[in-house]
């Protein structure tokens, strides 16, 4: 196996847009799929936050993870 770092070749070169090979429609479709996946993950994290939500008491409906402010801000 060739170590691309030692040869000076970049690992992402095969993934770059090639005007003579790639069609703009295909690139647009790939970007739409990636944007949809990112939006889905973001929406899911907002609807169902990690750690769940408090079920009863004064904090009912708030994210349990929000109780630890440092960890919540990292999230």
Automatic annotation (TrEMBL):
Q: Which organism is it from?
A: Gossypium lobatum
Membrane-crossing ranges are none
Q: Name one GO cellular component term.
A: plasma membrane
- Where, subcellularly, is it found? Membrane
Membrane topology note: Multi-pass membrane protein
Give the UniProt keywords, A-Z: ANK repeat, Membrane, Repeat, Transmembrane, Transmembrane helix
Protein name (Swiss-Prot/TrEMBL): PGG domain-containing protein
Q: Pfam families from the xrefs? A: PGG (PF13962)
Where it mainly occurs, coarsely classed, is: membrane
The chain positions of domain PGG read 27-75
Q: Does the keyword Ligase apply?
A: no
> Record's InterPro entries?
PGG_dom
């Amino acid at each position: 196996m060739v170590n691309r770092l030692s040869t000076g070749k970049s690992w992402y070169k095969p993934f770059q847009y090639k005007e003579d090979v790639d069609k703009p429609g295909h690139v647009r479709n790939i970007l739409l799929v990636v944007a949809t996946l990112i939006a889905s993950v973001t929406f899911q994290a907002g609807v169902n936050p990690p750690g769940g939500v408090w079920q009863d008491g004064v904090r009912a409906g708030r994210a349990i993870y929000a109780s630890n402010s440092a960890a919540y801000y990292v999230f």
